[in-house]
Amino acid sequence: MNRAAKDRILRVDQAGEYGAVRIYAGQLAVMGDRAPYSGEIRHMAEQEAEHRAKFDALIAQRGVRPTAMQPFWHVAGFALGAATALIGPKAAMACTAAVEEEIDRHYSAQLDELGGDDPELSGMIEQFRDDEREHRATALAAGAEQAPAYPLLAGAIRLGCRMAIKLAERI
Fold it and tell me: Is the separation of the CB atoms in 27 and 92 below 8 Å?
């Protein structure tokens, strides 16, 4: 795999983790520490912050340009988190389930693309994919599918994730 392809993978993954941190920040800003599932959200937020920090370090180490869309993700991620939290705790969990479903697919495709070409990056992606799968399972166990208009809400969020991935890969 060439360097440009690896840079693209690293750029989009760092952007995704940045967005995830912002989604959870928006949810916690609305729900606070006393709402149902706030402990689970705080735990997932901490893991996403660790993922972001590791991708930030690898981007710096490898001299990869982050996405120019970062200011947009800053606002959009927070807004998505806040909006789903305003609907209610189950909608916040629906957001997590939908996002993590797309990220699982995304990370799995990247692992296939990388093969054994970059063990450091592949190892990070595999570890983070396992965390994202755990987040999705947590969200589903917390009743994500019971959120109002779940199929519509989750479908819209998954579509937004796919669009964000395509933008961050290129811009």
Answer: yes
Distances from the Cα of 75 to the Cα of 23, 29, 57, 78, 125, angstroms: 9, 13, 23, 5, 25
Structure tokens at 71: 């200011």
Radius of gyration, CA atoms only, the chain: 15
Separation between Cα atoms, residue 77 and residue 59, nearest integer Å: 21
What span, in angstroms and rounded, lies between the C-alpha atoms of 56 and 28? 23
What are the φ/ψ torsions at residue 34 (nearest 5 degrees)? Answer: -100, -10
For the stretch 96-136, pLDDT in tens is 999 999 999 999 999 999 988 889 999 999 999 999 999 99
The pTM of this model reads 0.91
DSSP state of 65: P
Q: Could you give the angle at which helices 119-141 and 3-31 cross, rounded to 10 degrees?
A: 30
**Helix, strand or coil for residue 143?**
coil
Tens of pLDDT along 43-79? 999 999 999 999 999 999 999 999 888 888 899 999 9
Long-range contacts of residues 101-105, Cβ cutoff 8 Å, at least 24 apart: 101/136, 101/154, 101/158, 102/158, 102/161, 102/162, 102/165, 103/16, 103/20, 103/129, 103/132, 103/161, 104/129, 104/132, 104/133, 104/136
